[in-house]
Design a protein that fits this description.
Elements: E1 4-6, E2 42-43, H1 46-57, H2 62-72, E3 92-93, E4 98-99, H3 100-106, H4 118-126, H5 129-143, H6 145-154, H7 162-179, E5 186-187, E6 191-193
Helix pairs in contact: 2-7, 5-6, 6-7
Length: 195
């Protein structure tokens, strides 16, 4: 059974530091921002523009911003519980929600880490946007687009699951680039099937 969630519609108002996202920074309240139809722009708090700038300063590319926005919405931080209710190699970590298997296999910082280290070692990445972005860039570079999306969405057991997710990431990238929203407080919404 699959559940859908409005991935990019999580509301939060908080600032993130230029170099880290402490675990104490979590969304305030649970109300969703008002939004229009899927793909239509809506305003986020000012902290969203600052968060985009922080990631760009850390080396994020426009596709990285698209992935982070699609995964986190206006909160735009690792605003979920470490692991995102998943454990071991399936645990989702950091602002880009990369799974632990990808990270330990393809991010130099976590080379040699085992599946059970997801919580202790993953906490480093979960709290540090510079490290998260460094790993994100390594994953993208080492895996290439289709393998990245496949492993990010379906893991080693279902890499074909990344096709639809990759399409949504490209839609968000178009929203960012064509709409001039790379560094402002604007977001959009796509109803992505949760994995």
């Amino acid at each position: 059974m699959h559940f859908t969630r409005p991935v990019a519609a999580v509301a939060a108002t908080f600032a993130i530091s230029a170099l880290a996202m402490p675990t104490s920074l979590r969304p305030i309240g649970s109300s969703l921002l008002p939004r229009g139809a899927e793909g239509e722009p809506f305003e986020c708090p000012e902290s969203t523009a600052a968060a985009k700038q922080t990631l760009l300063s850390a080396g994020a590319k426009p596709m990285d911003i698209a992935i982070a926005m699609l995964e986190n919405g206006c909160a735009f931080t690792a605003a979920f519980t470490i692991g995102n209710n998943k454990v071991d190699d399936s645990a989702e970590l950091g602002v880009y929600h990369n799974n632990w298997h990808m990270l330990r296999d393809h991010c130099d910082h976590f080379a040699g880490a085992g599946p059970s280290e997801w919580k202790t070692r993953g906490q480093e990445l979960h709290n540090d946007v510079v490290l998260a972005t460094k790993c994100q860039r390594q994953l993208w570079s080492k895996l290439g687009e289709s393998t990245y999306f496949g492993l990010q969405r379906g893991g080693a057991s279902n890499p074909g699951a990344g096709v639809e997710y990759g399409n949504y990431c490209h839609k968000y990238l178009d929203f960012i680039e064509k709409g001039g929203h790379l560094s402002d407080k604007m977001a959009t919404y796509y109803n992505v099937v949760s994995m």
